[in-house]
Design goal:
Blueprint: H1 5-12, H2 17-25, E1 28-30, E2 33-35, H3 38-46, E3 57-58, H4 61-69, H5 81-85, H6 93-103, H7 108-117, E4 124-125, H8 127-130, H9 132-144, H10 150-161, H11 183-193, H12 196-209, H13 214-220, E5 228-229, H14 230-253, E6 258-259, H15 261-269, H16 277-287, E7 294-295, H17 296-306, H18 309-321, H19 328-339, H20 345-355, H21 365-376, H22 392-401
Parallel strand pairs: 1-3
Antiparallel strand pairs: 1-2, 4-5, 6-7
Helix pairs in contact: 6-9, 7-11, 9-11, 14-17, 15-16, 16-20, 18-19, 18-21
GO biological process, one term: mitochondrial calcium ion homeostasis
Pfam families: EF-hand_7 (PF13499)
Domain EF-hand: 105-140, 343-378
Length: 403
């Protein structure tokens, strides 16, 4: 059974931006619930739109079981896991939100995330504890639901969650005014409020209501009895961040060891609300006449820094309060002090040339932070695709390596 485009657009009216994106990129359906493949997920976080208009393919129980049987255990994970699985995997909507959270978190936050799931404090996470995630995100979503046709909203909930639990929840709630804004904040605050004993009592009901997914089998084994330790959890999160960055880097490098400074600027300006990207690109072209290129290690270190943007913002505010200008040395030092990440002089110079529109070799604190926050959200603060410009040298290089 497939869903046609008009039905998809109809339910889109009742969906939030994240729900809309999930539904656009998801390609599988099982018992009324939508799923992404690992390939769908990679596309959703690295592409503007699906390459082809999606029709949801209905999986049989036998097909789903075969997919799950081929899921590797967590100790076989790598930074190519999603690419290797490709179409042979199923990812639910709540897992999609969880994976999005991972992509924007610093390594120091991995321990916090693990401890949030480890509700009984035994340094291991089991399947029951991980399923708290389903309840937390479902409950938050209910508070954000758009009003309208109850039947349509019920259909949407079925597509996203596969079931709908009555209002009694695993979580202690303290009023609408205390609901945090981000899914990460929701996870961080709500997991600490979760009553594990209540969850344990309902775990069998939840498990029977939900189909296993690739992530659940990867973490907890085919029988769901395995437990996840911090080292494996950390490795999974680090591998996922690395894999997405590798895919973005390789989409511009075409087999080379570097991407051009201009391509780096394009990647930074994707998923932002910048209205006139051409001014940034023109400014950079005039300031960096000779291409040196950005290596993957430089590229990765910058995005590790972005995942620590909140701490860096505090350091930058100290300069701002002291009425001190932010030059390249101050910027590099603030990054290292706040995040522990060392950026190369060439990378820092490139960042300055992109954002230093008035060419005084000083960084506009407010403008830079605002744009980078948009970039971290990967389009959920009002995505606007940008036109891509390339230098002659980049075009020649890509033409040669595309043959």
């Amino acid at each position: 059974v497939t869903e046609n485009r008009s039905d998809l657009e109809d339910l889109h009216l009742y969906a939030t931006p994240r729900e809309q994106r999930f539904r656009r990129f998801a390609s599988l359906e099982f018992e009324g619930q939508l799923y992404m493949t690992p390939h769908d997920f990679i596309q959703a976080v690295t592409s503007d739109e699906p390459k082809h208009a999606k029709k949801w393919r209905s999986l049989s129980k036998q097909e789903l079981n075969q997919i799950l049987m081929e899921t590797p255990p967590v100790w076989k994970g790598s930074s190519k896991l999603f690419r290797n699985l490709n179409e042979k995997g199923v990812i639910s909507y709540t897992e999609y939100l969880f994976l999005l959270c991972i992509l924007t978190k610093p390594h120091a936050g991995f321990r916090i995330a693990f401890n949030m799931f480890d509700t009984d404090g035994n340094e291991m996470v089991d399947k029951k504890e991980f399923l708290v995630l389903q309840e937390i995100f479902r409950k938050k979503n209910e508070k954000r639901e758009k009003r309208g046709d109850e039947e349509k909203r019920a259909m949407l909930r079925l597509q996203l969650y596969g079931y709908h639990i009555p209002t009694n929840s695993v979580l202690k709630t303290e009023g609408e005014d205390l609901v945090p804004r981000s899914y990460w904040d929701t996870l961080r605050r709500s997991t600490s409020q979760a009553l594990f004993s209540d969850l344990a009592e309902r775990a069998d009901d939840m498990t029977s209501s939900l189909s296993d997914t690739t992530l659940l089998v990867h973490f907890f084994g085919k029988k769901g009895k395995a437990e996840l330790n911090f080292e494996d959890f950390y490795r999974f999160m680090d591998n996922l961040q690395t894999e997405v960055l590798e895919i973005e880097f390789l989409s511009y490098s075409n087999g080379m060891n570097t991407i051009s400074e201009e391509d780096f600027a394009h990647i930074l300006l994707r998923y932002t609300n910048v209205e006139n990207t051409s001014s940034y690109l023109e400014n950079m072209r005039g300031s960096i006449p000779e291409e040196k290129g950005i290596t993957f290690e430089e590229f990765r270190s910058f995005f590790q820094f972005l995942n620590n943007l909140e701490d860096f913002t505090i350091a930058m505010q100290m300069y701002n309060f002291a009425s001190r200008s932010i030059g390249q040395d101050e910027f590099k030092r603030a990054v290292y002090v706040a995040t522990g990440v060392k950026l190369s002089p060439h990378l820092v110079n490139t960042v300055f040339k992109i954002f230093d529109v008035d060419r005084d070799d000083q960084l506009s604190y407010k403008e830079f932070i605002g744009i980078m926050k948009d970039r971290l959200n990967r389009g959920f603060r009002g995505y606007k695709p940008i036109q891509r410009y390339t230098t002659f040298k980049s075009c020649v290089r890509k033409e040669l390596y595309s043959r």
